[in-house]
Backbone:
């Protein structure tokens, strides 16, 4: 699991994303409305899974390292751009000048890896 200041724990000790918190108590997706939100806001940003997303036919790969997240090639062998953490990617990685967190439910595909 990632250890960053935005990762909080609830009263039961369950980790959640404090910047993009779950807000649907009846959801099957760790409190998020959609599986895409769960994948990006929880699996990627909190649990630290690597991530592949596809938007308008273009694929993007993010590799979680011990102290940062890298935009990478499809084989996870090349480091293209460095981000501080998963939320930094969500807020500062833009496609067509739109931050990733605003595109989460418009993605063609997403996969924690």
Residues:
């Amino acid at each position: 699991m990632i250890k960053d200041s935005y990762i909080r724990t609830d009263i039961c000790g369950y980790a959640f994303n404090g910047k993009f918190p779950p807000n649907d108590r009846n959801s099957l997706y760790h409190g998020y409305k959609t599986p895409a939100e769960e994948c990006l806001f929880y699996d990627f940003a909190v649990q630290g899974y690597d991530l592949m997303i596809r938007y308008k036919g273009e694929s993007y790969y993010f590799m979680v390292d011990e102290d940062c997240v890298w935009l990478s090639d499809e084989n996870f062998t090349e480091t293209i751009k460095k981000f501080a953490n998963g939320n930094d990617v969500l807020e500062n990685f833009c496609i067509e000048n739109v931050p990733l967190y605003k595109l989460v439910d418009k993605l063609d595909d997403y996969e924690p890896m």
Q: What stands out?
A: The first strand starts at residue 7 and ends at 9. Residues 72 and 79 are 5 Å apart (CA to CA). The helical segments are 35-44, 86-92, 100-103. The chain is about 20% helix and 30% strand.
